[in-house]
Amino acid sequence: MAKIEKFEDLICWQKSRSLVKEIYTLSNCFGKDYSLKDQIRRAAVSTMLNISEGFALRTHKEFKKFLYTSHGSLAEVQSILYIAFDQNYIENDVFQEYYQKCNEISRIISGLIKSLN
Which residues contact 114 (CB under 8 A, 6 or more apart)? Predict the structure, then answer.
Protein backbone atom coordinates (compact mmCIF):
# COMPACT_ATOMS: atom_id res chain seq x y z
CA MET A 1 0.00 0.00 0.00
CA ALA A 2 1.28 3.46 -0.87
CA LYS A 3 2.11 5.80 1.96
CA ILE A 4 -0.29 8.68 2.45
CA GLU A 5 1.79 11.82 2.23
CA LYS A 6 -0.87 14.52 2.02
CA PHE A 7 -4.44 14.82 3.20
CA GLU A 8 -5.70 14.98 -0.38
CA ASP A 9 -4.66 11.32 -0.74
CA LEU A 10 -7.14 10.24 1.93
CA ILE A 11 -10.28 8.64 0.49
CA CYS A 12 -12.37 10.01 3.36
CA TRP A 13 -11.19 13.54 2.55
CA GLN A 14 -11.89 13.07 -1.17
CA LYS A 15 -15.39 11.79 -0.48
CA SER A 16 -15.99 14.57 2.07
CA ARG A 17 -14.98 17.13 -0.51
CA SER A 18 -17.47 15.65 -2.95
CA LEU A 19 -20.15 15.65 -0.25
CA VAL A 20 -19.54 19.35 0.47
CA LYS A 21 -20.05 20.20 -3.18
CA GLU A 22 -23.26 18.17 -3.31
CA ILE A 23 -24.58 19.58 0.00
CA TYR A 24 -24.13 23.12 -1.29
CA THR A 25 -26.34 22.24 -4.26
CA LEU A 26 -28.83 20.20 -2.23
CA SER A 27 -29.28 22.88 0.41
CA ASN A 28 -30.56 25.29 -2.21
CA CYS A 29 -33.78 23.23 -1.99
CA PHE A 30 -34.29 24.54 1.55
CA GLY A 31 -35.86 27.73 0.27
CA LYS A 32 -35.78 30.58 2.76
CA ASP A 33 -34.72 28.36 5.65
CA TYR A 34 -31.33 30.05 5.70
CA SER A 35 -30.35 28.78 9.14
CA LEU A 36 -30.82 25.13 8.16
CA LYS A 37 -29.02 25.71 4.85
CA ASP A 38 -26.10 27.31 6.69
CA GLN A 39 -26.00 24.58 9.34
CA ILE A 40 -25.84 21.65 6.93
CA ARG A 41 -23.18 23.42 4.88
CA ARG A 42 -21.08 24.14 7.97
CA ALA A 43 -21.40 20.55 9.20
CA ALA A 44 -20.33 19.14 5.82
CA VAL A 45 -17.43 21.58 5.59
CA SER A 46 -16.40 20.69 9.15
CA THR A 47 -16.16 17.05 8.16
CA MET A 48 -13.70 17.82 5.40
CA LEU A 49 -11.70 20.42 7.32
CA ASN A 50 -11.23 18.28 10.42
CA ILE A 51 -9.79 15.45 8.35
CA SER A 52 -7.21 17.75 6.79
CA GLU A 53 -6.41 19.60 10.00
CA GLY A 54 -5.93 16.40 11.97
CA PHE A 55 -3.71 14.91 9.29
CA ALA A 56 -1.54 18.03 9.23
CA LEU A 57 -0.78 17.72 12.96
CA ARG A 58 1.27 14.58 12.19
CA THR A 59 0.54 12.59 15.33
CA HIS A 60 -1.81 9.63 15.52
CA LYS A 61 -3.34 10.91 18.75
CA GLU A 62 -4.24 14.32 17.32
CA PHE A 63 -5.33 12.86 13.99
CA LYS A 64 -7.73 10.46 15.75
CA LYS A 65 -9.16 13.34 17.80
CA PHE A 66 -9.95 15.29 14.65
CA LEU A 67 -11.31 12.19 12.90
CA TYR A 68 -13.75 11.71 15.79
CA THR A 69 -14.84 15.33 15.40
CA SER A 70 -15.26 14.79 11.67
CA HIS A 71 -17.31 11.69 12.39
CA GLY A 72 -19.55 13.77 14.65
CA SER A 73 -20.02 16.39 11.95
CA LEU A 74 -21.21 13.68 9.58
CA ALA A 75 -23.84 12.65 12.12
CA GLU A 76 -24.90 16.30 12.24
CA VAL A 77 -25.34 16.31 8.46
CA GLN A 78 -27.47 13.18 8.77
CA SER A 79 -29.64 14.75 11.47
CA ILE A 80 -30.17 17.83 9.34
CA LEU A 81 -31.18 15.58 6.46
CA TYR A 82 -33.97 14.29 8.71
CA ILE A 83 -35.11 17.84 9.35
CA ALA A 84 -35.01 18.65 5.63
CA PHE A 85 -37.05 15.53 4.91
CA ASP A 86 -39.55 16.23 7.70
CA GLN A 87 -40.01 19.78 6.41
CA ASN A 88 -40.61 18.42 2.89
CA TYR A 89 -37.54 20.18 1.50
CA ILE A 90 -36.31 16.87 0.07
CA GLU A 91 -37.94 13.62 -1.02
CA ASN A 92 -37.27 10.25 0.58
CA ASP A 93 -35.03 9.04 -2.27
CA VAL A 94 -32.83 12.13 -1.94
CA PHE A 95 -32.75 11.71 1.84
CA GLN A 96 -31.67 8.08 1.46
CA GLU A 97 -29.00 8.90 -1.12
CA TYR A 98 -27.30 11.53 1.01
CA TYR A 99 -27.74 9.60 4.25
CA GLN A 100 -25.95 6.63 2.65
CA LYS A 101 -23.14 8.86 1.36
CA CYS A 102 -22.60 10.01 4.94
CA ASN A 103 -22.64 6.38 6.12
CA GLU A 104 -19.98 5.47 3.57
CA ILE A 105 -17.68 8.28 4.68
CA SER A 106 -18.37 7.41 8.31
CA ARG A 107 -17.29 3.80 7.74
CA ILE A 108 -14.09 4.95 6.03
CA ILE A 109 -13.28 7.31 8.90
CA SER A 110 -14.00 4.57 11.44
CA GLY A 111 -11.64 2.22 9.61
CA LEU A 112 -8.96 4.90 9.55
CA ILE A 113 -9.36 5.46 13.29
CA LYS A 114 -8.98 1.71 13.91
CA SER A 115 -5.85 1.61 11.75
CA LEU A 116 -4.30 4.34 13.90
CA ASN A 117 -4.73 2.35 17.12
Answer: none
